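Can anyone check this?
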Amino acid sequence: MAEKEHTTDSAAYGDVKSRKSFFESVFSDKSGKLPTRTLQGKNKTSPQTEKGQSHLAGNQSSTVVAKKDRDQGKEELHDQRKDDKVEVEQRLTKTPENRKTRDWFPHNLEVFKKPMCLISTEGENILKVEEETLKQIEKIDLPCCVVVVAGLYRTGKSYLMNRLAEAHSGFALGDTIESKTKGIWVWCKMHPEKKQTVLILLDTEGLGDVKKGDQKHDNRLFTLAALLSSTLVYNMKGTFDQDAVSKLTFVSEIANNIQFKGRKQADNCGLKLILPTFILVLRDFALKIVIKGRKLSQDEYLEDCLKSDSTRDDEFNEPREAIRTYFPQRKCFTLPAPGDSEVVENLEMLEFGDLCKAFQTRTAEFVSFVYSEDHKKLGFGKPVNGSNAMI
């Protein structure tokens, strides 16, 4: 009797398993998700099942137990079939013309292999979009996290970008006082932590270059970086003192450079919806963050530096107020020097593990936080992909 019952269950199980294997082979797609279909003749039983049931009729107690197990299994299978039917019908009702097929892969787009110029600078600091690079980005149909690193020239922006790209090199580094990056360069990577998401890294031209001497050019670059990004990293050296804050005058100009439907936002409500998370990175930071005997966190240090002072003039208060207003989501990281002057000069040639341990720890914390940030969204909450990320 036990042997017959075992044969019956195996036959039923084999029947379902064989059908599932068939649908896996026919409908499985690249996402690994299994779209299945309704099994035909679900009310029919196999001859083996009927034979097994007739044998079980002779033993009432065994039949009750077996029937209870089968009923439970049928309910579960029925629910699964119902869900599968809806999904498969949705797939099958799509015409071939409406089915979306991916015509790109990371390995066949140059922008995934190396940094490419997205926006170049011509003549009198005129910004020009590089169409070939833009066309490659527009093929990306996955949600995008857009990270921009901006800041004063020669402060090590490109090094941070390479850390985010998990690459030893890529974005050009420099070991002289000459500004290395011109315009805006882009490098795409599959996101290290978010599935089916692309990480778009934008390295910007250094601000405050004395050779350019064009503050309007810096204002346009910073505004463009803020609009493109979901996370905006402002990189600078030393402490966040008055001299450092005063160099952020272009933050105050954001409202003058952005218009909604042809109008500037006097109340800045629209700006708050589209501007990114602001991360301040202070490089070569060596001070203890202690105020009035109390040790502050990195974020508390930033907020303390952004406080307005009624006894000071507009030059002191305006940049602080602008950062608080335009970037309600703020974060601060203080990174110590990676080593002595020789280490700094040869940073590109050294392995990350060869640098100062404290620098490694803080840099890893910074990278982890950036990776955790959500992808960029349009004003109504829809995730941004390559076709609209650079609009």
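Reply from J.R.: I decoded it. Confidence is low (pLDDT under 50) at residues 1-20, 22-59, 84-100, 174-179.
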